[in-house]
Inverse folding.
């Protein structure tokens, strides 16, 4: 299962947060197939990080899943990265994909303008 929130960013480079939620967190570190898929995921993310596509990737301390921040040119590229993720291919996680905006200055200015129009 994969969920992609709707949004519009024009032609700018895009960042996405990918939330990977373990379907069976109790098996993540206790099952050879689950642990192998996790190791393959980490290697996959490391390769993407070296290619400049992954900003940060990591797992939640409670073993329930993890989060990746990816930097891509298109929504399709983000979906392709998620589709090829070993955890997704092994059906060990559900994925939520959200656009992410880290430009706090312009973002705040946009919010102030919108607030001003609200009266």
């Amino acid at each position: 299962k994969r969920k992609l929130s709707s949004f519009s960013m024009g032609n700018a480079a895009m960042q996405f947060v990918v939330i990977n939620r373990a379907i069976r967190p109790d098996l993540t570190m206790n099952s050879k197939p689950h642990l192998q898929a996790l190791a393959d995921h980490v290697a996959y993310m490391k390769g993407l990080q070296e290619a400049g596509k992954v900003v940060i990737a990591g797992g939640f301390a409670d073993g329930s899943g993890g989060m990746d921040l990816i930097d891509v040119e298109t929504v399709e590229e983000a979906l392709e990265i998620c589709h090829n993720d070993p955890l997704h291919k092994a059906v060990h996680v559900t994925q939520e994909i959200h656009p992410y905006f880290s430009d706090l200055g312009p973002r705040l200015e946009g919010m102030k303008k919108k607030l001003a129009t609200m009266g």
